[in-house]
Amino acid sequence: MTFKVRIESSGREFSVQDKETVLAAALRQGITLAYSCRNGACGTCKARIVSGRVDYGSYEDKALSEAEKSAGAVLLCQAVPLTDLVVQAKEINAAKDIPIRIMPCRVMQLQKLAHDVMQVSLKLAEGQRLQFLAGQYIDILLSGNLRRSFSLATAPSTDELLQLHIRHVPDGHFTEQVFSKMKERDLLRFQGPLGTFFLREESDSPAILVAGGTGFAPMKSILEHAFAQGFQRPLHLYWGARARRDLYLDELPRSWAQKYPNFRYTPVLSETRPEDQWTGRQGWVHAALIADYPDLSRHEVYASGPPPMIDALKQAVKVHGLKEDRLYYDSFEFAHIAAKV
Ligand code: FES
Questions:
Q1: Is the pTM of this model over 0.70?
Q2: How far is ligand 1, taken at its centre, from the CA of residue 290, in Å?
Q3: Any idea which fold 207-332 has?
Q4: Which residue among 60, 62, 168, 212 is buried most deeply as judged by most CB within 10 Å?
Q5: Taking the CA of residue 262 as centre, how many other CA atoms within 13 Å lie in the half-sphere pointing to its CB?
Q6: CATH code assigned to 101-194
C-alpha cells in the first residue's frame, strides 16, 4: 500500500511505500528533510503531523517526549504512514541538489593523530570528485550490509583527498580494523555525502561551533570552508576533550586564531592530567560556552560530539535565548552507534 505525504509549507508531495519511513521515502525522491542519526535517537528529524496517522516506530524518549507526541510531533526517520499525511517539516534546500552516490576509494594515508585517533585519507578513482557541503558525512560500506558513518574533515574545495578522523573503539568491528589491519592502498567503498549538518551560508549571525572529541572533524571542514570563502561573520570554536592529548590537532585552530581576526578558539578540558600542565578552561564545554555567552539570542550554534555533550548543550542553550531553529547538531555517535565502529 502506498501513501502520499505533503509538506505543508512548500506543498511538495512524495509517495511512501509499504513499511517505508517518511524520511527514507523523501530522501529516495530527492526531498532532503533535516536528519542526522536516522535511528530515533537525536530528534533532528522531528516534524509535526497536520493530518493523518502514523506508526511512530521505535525511538528514545529524549528524542520525542510523550508531551511532544501528544502535541502532534513525530520522528520522520521512524514514522511509517498509516494514511496519507500532511506534515510540517523542515526542507533542507542546500543539500538536495547534491546526488548521493556509492563510490570506490583507496586508502592513501593512515596517520595517527592521537593515541586513539587515526586520520584516514581517501582518494577517489582518477577524475572523480565528491561534491559535498562542509560538515556532511559519508558511510563506509562493509561486507554483510554493515555501514559506518564518519564526518568529512576536509573542506569541499580541497577534495582531492577526503580525510576522516576515526576514534578507536575497543572491540569495534571497523575501528579495530583501522588500527590493526588497514594498510595504505586498501580499497573501500562509501556512500555519500549524507546529513544536513553544514554551515548555513545565507546567515551572517555570529556562529558558535562546539566540538566534542572527534566532533572536531566536521568543524574543521566547516571552518576551512569558511576561511577559504572569506566569510567575515564571527566564528568561535569550543573544543571539549578529556585531557590535552585528546585535542589531537590543537595547533591547527590555534594557528587559525592568529590568522583570522573573526575566529576565536577555546579548548576546554574535563579531566586534566598532571602532565597536561593545563592553564586553559576546565569543565564541561557547554558550561564554558554559557559562561561566555549568557545571551544567545543573536547566535547560531553548531555542535558535533557524543550524545551526553549534545544533550547537555541542547538544554543549556535553550534557557539562554538560542532560537530553536538556530541549533544545528550532528549527533554522530548516534548515527555512528547503530553501526558501531
Ligand atoms: Fe530521526 Fe535522529 S531521531 S534523525
A1: yes
A2: 26
A3: Rossmann fold (3.40.50)
A4: 212
A5: 14
A6: 2.40.30.10
